[in-house]
From TrEMBL:
Similarity annotation: Belongs to the HyuE racemase family.
Source superkingdom: Bacteria
Organism of derivation: Alsobacter ponti
Protein name: Aspartate/glutamate racemase family protein
SUPFAM superfamilies: Aspartate/glutamate racemase
Amino acid sequence: MKRVLVIVPFPMTDEELGRRKDQLKSVKLGPDIAFDFRPVRVGPANYTSQHDFTLADFSILDAGLDAQAEGYDAVCIDTMSDSGMSALRSLLTIPVIGPGRHAMLVAQMLGEKFSILVMWDRWKPLYAKTLGELGMRDKCASIRSIGVRPDNKALLSGKEDAVFPLLLEAAQRCVDEDGADAIILGSTTMHQAHAYLAERLPVPVINPGPLTYRLAETALRLKLTHSKATYPAPLVPKPDMIRAIGAAGAAKGA
């Protein structure tokens, strides 16, 4: 049995974590692979500034630092920011998969241009960073926001009637006005809207969280992982220091 660790980017209760686990219902995976969801113990309240992005990188590094030693075969990061992905790849040899860049690369497989559908404008710098790293700014038709502040704990639960039509209207404008051939949901917190949008839009809609689960399964079956030429191991690893900072931060937060 292969085991995959899914790192959830905020501290949360079991009930809140369950809403993240529901993403597994959107993809049929083999019987020989299991996914464990682990929230970080420290981190920002939301991803709205460079301050938050730095804390996010550390929080996910802290949460996944020992994944390989714990017997996991792969790591998935449950945020479109891909926070901590590069740092974990430098420390681990098992596959580490973030949904942001992989959703964009898959969208490029499906059409000429894609749009990213988001809840609010404060997320836009995250996508701009990844697009720049991939050299794909010219492949992004648009990043459209519906101007609704997200809830990273409750997600879209209870807001479906209000939010889903707004997402559909914005996504349709991505197609009709911006020329998008595919739509990427801008956050794993939006996964509950995927089926609604996919049934009503004339182009593919990428659900980034479940995509990473499938990619993790594929990487393991094909015996593929990231290149250590791109993500070299540190000359002087500091895992004890990382754990100590994480523990101190968690104690302070409590």
